Amino acid sequence: MGVLLPDDGYVRMQVGLADEAGKALDTREAGHGLSVRTVQRDKTFCAQQIVFADGVRVEVSGDVYSGDFAMEQCGPVKGMVEHILEYLLANKRPGNIEPAPNTLRSLDPCAVADKAVKSVAAFRGARASELDEHRCAWTEKAVVFFGWSDDFGKDPAPFSLAGRETVEREIGEGTCSVSGKHVANGPNDIETATIHVRNPDIAAALWPLLPKA
């Protein structure tokens, strides 16, 4: 989920299973075997994890993805965490929060997308640079990340690209965000592959390289 701001600013919020526990900056008990940990916090990024009694971790993060400004993200992240806790503590806890067997969350975007990015002439000589475990960049003009969406296809409406439901949004002058639907773990928990790029042709090359949706 993203929020467009003035001056080409873009704030991204993500919710999904955490691969790593991370070092807790602070921890609080939420009841019924649940706890909340802040694992990252700076001027433009915040991540908190809801930890279940069995060790499963759901992470909520917010970051200023583009734009030359600082905006504290722990307030919005905390609000989303509280909403999730309210859902869980109202006896609506999902019976199964294991990812689908063909999940994207365990894949390396640098390795998976490198061939697709370099199939476009403008990036043929570009080198992949890992931003984090879910994001990879080939210069600032081509960034691929695997994540989650709670509003995929609601606005704008999706279209079909290389056999995959796709949405495209303009996020800045000459730059667009192209997201392809992967698997739905629930009505508001849809895995997506997203590209921030000046040339959307990369999406048509990348989608066939992903696990079958």
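Above is the first protein from milestone M3; the second protein from the same milestone is given next.
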Amino acid sequence: MSSVPQVSSVTSQPAACVEVPVTASSSSVSSEPHVSGVTSQPAACVEVSVTSSSLSSIPHVLCVTSQPTACVEVSMPIGIPVARRSGPTEIISSANSEFLVPRLPPTPSNQMRAKKLLAMGAMPLFPPARREWDQDEAVTFLEPKFKWPPRGWKGMSADLRLMLTEFQAMSILQARGCNFKFERVELLNAFNFLVLPGSLSPRAPVDTNVHSCHAIYVRLREIALGKEDMKWLRMIESASMMRDTANNKLIAACKEIPLRLKKK
């Protein structure tokens, strides 16, 4: 009995489970394990295999702690993939909401939308707006290459100013290899952005298309100056998707020149 190992304390470490098959003998009754102190917590499982010849080697447990019984089973850890979120899911406060939620661009007003349509035009539906030409040779066009307005135009008569615009429009069409199948008013409408201030207004022919083109232009000009007509403006925006784009580069070159919307 002196060789019995004594366990002074059982800590939180998992204990191994050892099964104790006890054989029936008269000496086995006196060799049961002795527990000196047991706390209120569950005891660890200590099971000893005992034979008739080794009854004296049963361990003696002095104290058992509250740690739960550990299972002597080996298991492999299984990793579960967790999807990571790229950003915060809620707004912490209104102060930093502009950094978490992107701001949408402001909706343009009806006046700005009408000015955008007038700046590019939508021939043959309506012509581009005239510009506030003031300085000589303010813009250099590349296709074909020329400078506009010509030098000394302010000293010319109204008729001569209109003639300069017509001559320059025909030169552009000739450089493109286009046939001259335009009426005088139609030619000036297509190049309305080149018409100089103070030019003579040509007499419009009796043509329904020319009159409707001028009427749409006048209505857009009124909206650009403050008149509200949302439904009509949306219809014109939809129709302008089929506009003629032959003069896009010329119109884009004079984008810095302000529109001339008011009659003078």
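Note on the second protein: The beta strands are 6-7, 35-38, 60-64, 130-131, 139-142, 145-148, 259-260.
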